[in-house]
Every structure is written in C-alpha cells, then in structure tokens.
Write a structure and sequence with these properties.
The chain is mainly α. Helix content is 75%, strand content 0%. It starts with a helix and ends in an 8-residue tail after the last helix.
Length: 246
C-alpha cells in the first residue's frame, strides 16, 4: 500500500503541478547565475529559499498530495477496495500518509540539492563548504513535509474540502501568525522550522530569526505534532464508513 501510494502520487497528472513547483529553487538559482547576479552566494540563497521554498513550495506540494491520499478516493468511492484487504483502517491511513510523505520528498529534496550546487558553483565555493545550510534545508524539508503532511492528512478525513482548508491554513494562517511578535508564532509550524534552520546553519540570514527555542526542542515539537496528527487521522478514519462504488 505504501508503494502503491507513492506510485499513484508520482504517476497521475497532478505530479505535473507538484513537480513543476518543486523545481522552482533550481529555476531561481539558475536564473540568478545566468543573470550574473553579483550578490548571488550562500547568503542570498538563504534569503530567497526560506520564503520561496519553506513557505510556498513545501506547503503546496504537501497539501496537494495529502488531499489525494484519502479524500479524493472517498469522493470517488474507490477507497473501499483498500479496505477489503485484511488491513485495519488505521494502518491504511498511516501507510497512505507515509507514501505521501515519501512521494513529496522525492519531488522536493533533489531540486534543493541541485539549487545549492548551482549556488556554490557560481560563488566558486566547494560543494561541501556550506553543508550546514544544505543540511538545514534538507532537515526542514523532511520535518516540514512530515508535519504539514500529517496535518493536511488529518484535514482530509475531517472536512469535505481539505484542499481549500489546507491552502487557507498554509498560506494565510502560517504567514500571518508566523509573522506576529511575541509568542504567537509558536502556534505555527513555520516557526519551528525556522527555529531548526537557525540552530543548524552556522552563518547567514537564517541565524537572525528571533526564537527562544533550540533546534532540538523545535525538532521534538514537530515530531510530536506529526505523530499526534497521524494518530488523530487514524482515529477519525477508523470511525468513517464507506460504500462500494456501484
């Protein structure tokens, strides 16, 4: 079921949109290099990729994939075929979530690595000279993909229009709450992703983010949130009833 989900998400027409958006870091990095931007280096890379990748690409890819995991199959009445197998509903929802996470990472991680390689090549720096930055973005991609994906999967079993609800949460709630002063940003996922990035990156704009949470604590909170969302999804999905398509 895990591999079926990965294959499904990477073979349908929606992958055109998600893959295209995932390539934006490569397009931006390549454009900056081709334009011979004098200030294009690992510092500008951080400035551009935090809002562009973490707050747009990551959210869009995960919400689209999560919407396809369960809700689309509920509406098409095809999910019942999975449930005829000797597998419990919680296992179905969990394996589909893990498949969605894997598919999202396949789309998002390679372009980030390529964009980093373009940046280092243009700046004349060795590939390994800023691995803390690359590691920070890969880590936040994994943690963010897991957390956002789990929450959006929960929305997919909770509401009838999870795509709209997910986009509203990702692009309105996260942007608005995440930019407020004080402790309010702690109610957003992006706050913890930026906290992880700050704790991992040694030098650069990412280190100036205001937070009193260490990278390890932020990681723990994101993991706990992810697990809680997956469990809630399984509990709600367990109580749902389905009819076989005629």
């Amino acid at each position: 079921m895990f591999f079926l989900t990965v294959r499904y998400l990477l073979s349908t027409r929606r992958v055109i949109a998600t893959a295209t958006l995932s390539l934006i870091p490569v397009v931006v990095a390549g454009s900056l290099a081709l334009a011979h931007t004098a200030t294009f280096d690992i510092l500008l890379f951080q400035i551009v990729m935090v809002p562009l990748f973490l707050q747009i690409v990551l959210i869009f890819v995960t919400v689209v994939n999560a919407n396809a995991l369960i809700r689309e199959e509920i509406e098409d009445q095809t999910l019942v075929f999975f449930l005829t197998r000797p597998v419990s509903k919680p296992m179905v929802s969990t394996f589909k979530y893990l498949g969605g996470l894997a598919a999202g990472l396949v789309l998002m991680v390679p372009p980030m690595i390529i964009a980093y390689a373009i940046t280092q090549s243009y700046a004349g720096a060795p590939f390994g000279s800023d691995l803390d930055v690359l590691g920070g973005f890969v880590a936040t991609t994994v943690l963010g993909g897991a957390a956002y994906g789990a929450f959006f999967a929960f929305l997919s079993v909770l509401v009838r229009r999870p795509l709209a609800a997910g986009l509203l949460f990702g692009f309105v709630w996260e942007s608005f709450v995440g930019s407020l002063p004080g402790d309010v940003p702690k109610l957003s996922i992006i706050h913890y992703l930026k906290s992880v990035l700050k704790g991992v990156v040694a030098v650069g704009p990412a280190t100036t983010y205001r937070t009193d949470i260490s990278a390890s604590v932020a990681t723990g909170i994101l993991v706990a949130f992810t697990v809680a969302s997956v469990l809630l999804t399984a509990l709600v999905f367990q109580e749902m009833e389905f009819r076989q398509k005629a």
